[in-house]
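Recap from last week: sequence in, structure out.
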Amino acid sequence: MTRYRNLGLFVVLAAVWGSAFMAIKAGLAYFPPVLFAALRYDVAGVVMLGYALYATDTPLPRGRAEWTEVAIGAVFLIAAYHVLLFIGQNDPTVTSAAAAVIVSLSPILTTGFARALLPSERLTALGIVGMLLGLVGVAVLSELDPANLLAGGTVAKLLIFGAAAAFALGAVLTRRVDSDLPIETMEAWSMLGGALLMHVVSFGLGESLATVEVNLQSMLALGYLSIAASALGFLIYFDLLERLGPIEINLVSYVAPLFAALAGWAFLSEVPNTATAGGFGLIFVGFVLLKRAAIRRELRHRFGDGGLDAAD
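Predicted structure tokens:
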């Protein structure tokens, strides 16, 4: 049952984070970018702190290890990732396709950090091929023109690359910390700490609440990102990070664009085309290569060993 639970949570996480691209795009029309990200985690952090008070016996971190884990989450997974991502995406010369492909480098970056910092977290050569196929699939799905990816908005794209690197490094570093802090508590205080850091950055950039336009659309965008994509999404993320490790869980970067495409079709009347189908196919092949051992175990569980060992 555990493997089905992990799969179900993985799909939910991909759906929530994939559809969040629409909410971010809608919200940036009404909020300055860094202030938008900070307000998002103000709300999410308060919600998660309330949940931590309800669900755990340790709503406040204790000791150096627990506060270190919170600091890593606040600095890398929340503040650095979202500041760099939101500023980069706010550049009008950067297309959503280019940003999606750059963010999808996160699993590859995670692998690099894990090889350096977590020797037990390694991939075989075939696994690396699978990850690269997934990345190519995202590029095909986005109908990316390599010439356009490299043209214009260079600084903004480097910022988005930095966001992906910050998230990947944060995922690996949290695994190095020997802490028994409950996920709910770690998430709540990381969000609140990250929000505080983003407010400092927002103030330094001269952003102001006076420029925020309050209406139904802006509040819906903020609410969805705060509750669904942030509070619920990161709760699932940290749970799966503990179960699967940083390499496998960051593969959600490959699946989220698929749900973004479906959401675009459902809400924006964007009809999937041949490139979308090709992207889906490549991503599927990449996942098969990466998860071949788990798939083999599942087939053995379902049908017995008959002939499968010979294929090993």
